[in-house]
Amino acid sequence: MNLPFSSYHRFRPDVKRLLIVSSLMSVSFFGIQQLLKILYVLRLGYGPEYVGLFNASGAFTWMIMSLPAAAIGDRIGLVPAMRLGGLLTLLGMVILPLTEMMPSGWQTTWPILSQLVTTTGWALFAINLIPAFMVATAEHNRNDAYALNAALRGLGTLVGTVLGGVLPDLLAVFLGQTLDDPGPYRLGLWISVLICVIGFVFLLRIRPLAQVAEVATKEQVHTPFPVWPVALVVLHVYLVNAGWATCQSFCNPYLDTELRLSPSLIGLINGAGQALAVFAPLMGPRLALRWGNGRVLMATAMLSALILLPLGASQNLLGAGIGRAGVLGLTALWMPALQIYQMESVDRHWRSLAYGISSTVMGLSFGTISLVGGYVAVRWGYPQLFLIGVILCVVGAVIMWGVQRRPSLVQIPGKSSAVK
């Protein structure tokens, strides 16, 4: 399956700008920020408990803001909501590297404030970006736009992650400091702010998009809310996402403080995972055609458990590298399968609400593990935390296996065929 890069010149200008904004924001937010902000917090003298609280504050903010962000986009328009989100994201990014300038009484809460503002902004931006592509594209090139956006987002994250790993080494020489000092990481965070500013400039150039509301016809019958299909998918989402969260929240601190890897090597490991994340979604359509999206979800959860197992079973670079890179790649394969699977398992009238609930649960599971995981890591060690992630992924896979054995559980009411 080839990436539709050749379609770029046929898109409307606003679609091109959306792609550019998404790419630049990915370099800044998912790449440099996600890598360096944890290393910066560690250099400020905080331990795993604080890192867990720091990550949890962002996850819970995402959970709280998932449904309101969509409602705000409906109320004020997609582009205005994205601009407001981009501005708040930029403000949150500016707050974090100012931590050391704050009075001592503020320095503990200042990074948490940064997470709250940044994640609120990102929820407004990211949740309204997807329907913005739907409105801005035509039917004949819509699939190309979504595929290209996914690829460019992964590529931007890859570039930002590798760049974030290299920056501390270069900036330490420039500042005359060591990698144990916060200075190189602080300056790296300012570079991510600059990239975000460039993305925001392109966002300001996008025209307001006219939203087309779906009008119910006489033939459309709104079925009752599908409690069981949504509940089972949500339970699977919670467990698998929580399993990944053990690595997403604590792999970088583990690599930094336990294995004592350099920031450049940590960035290289994360970059390898992001490289997998660029190409993994391209396998999804073929796998879904052959097995069905439900089996893809089940297999991805089980593979995640196998990938996390080396992190919990042995403390070495190879196991840590496989675990961290593998989780990033499998996440990218799982997400589009989940979106399609859930959209097919509920009536059209309930799709936005169902996916909003799933997004909320993702934030809840990530936040719970981030909050509790720091204390687990301190008391029993990082490997035991990763083994908890293995168990969670296995249980999530078993639930999806059970659903595949009883497809009627996720059948759309009034439909004769079940979701695969």
Task: Explain this structure.
By secondary structure, the protein is mainly alpha-helical. It folds into 2 domains: 12-207, MFS general substrate transporter like domains (Growth Hormone, Chain: A), CATH 1.20.1250.20; 225-413, Growth Hormone, Chain: A. 78% of the residues lie in helices and 0% in strands. The protein is built from 12 helices and no strands. It has helices at 13-43, 48-76, 78-95, 110-136, 142-175, 183-204, 227-258, 263-291, 293-313, 317-345, 351-380, 382-405. α2 runs antiparallel to α11 (351-380). The chain is globular.
Q: Can you summarize this structure?
A:
The protein has 420 residues and is mainly alpha-helical.
Keyword list:
single chain; 420 residues; mainly alpha; Growth Hormone, Chain: A; 12 helices; 78% helix
Helix/strand layout:
Layout: H1 13-43, H2 48-76, H3 78-95, H4 110-136, H5 142-175, H6 183-204, H7 227-258, H8 263-291, H9 293-313, H10 317-345, H11 351-380, H12 382-405
Helix pairs in contact: 1-4, 1-5, 1-6, 2-3, 2-4, 2-11, 3-4, 3-6, 5-6, 5-8, 7-9, 7-10, 7-11, 7-12, 8-9, 8-10, 9-10, 9-12, 11-12
